[in-house]
Amino acid sequence: MNIIDVVEKEQMKKATPQFSIGDQVDVSVKIIEGDKERIQVFSGVVIARNGGGFKETFTVRRIVQGEGVERVFPIH
């Protein structure tokens, strides 16, 4: 096992929520603007899961004012 695999394994979350494509999810994102901090919730449908291991991501899609908005989030 090389050093990159060791570091990635240490950084991975032990327990991640179980979800699949087509599920409705709410993702909380911490927004930091200057010295202010807030939580923004992005609600939508999971349309994709990509990658594996430490680099795994999922894509959430929602409709805002008639326009589709997609956002990619890391799982770990």
How does this structure look, described?
- The chain is mainly beta and 76 residues long.
- It has one domain (17-74).
- It is built from one helix and four strands, in the order H-E-E-E-E.
- It has a four-stranded antiparallel sheet, with no helix packed on it.
- Strand 2 and strand 3 (57-64) form a beta hairpin.
- The longest helix has 9 residues, at 3-11.
- The protein is globular.
- The mean pLDDT is 90.
List the helices and strands and how they pair.
Blueprint: H1 3-11, E1 24-33, E2 36-50, E3 57-64, E4 67-74
Antiparallel strand pairs: 1-2, 2-3, 3-4
Mean pLDDT: 90
Q: What's the N-to-C terminus distance?
A: 20 Å
Tell me the Rg in angstroms: 15 Å
How many H/I helices? 1
Q: How would you write the strand order of the largest sheet?
A: 1-2-3-4
Tags for this model:
mainly beta
Concise synopsis of the structure shown:
This protein is mainly beta. It is built from 1 helix and 4 strands, in the order H-E-E-E-E.
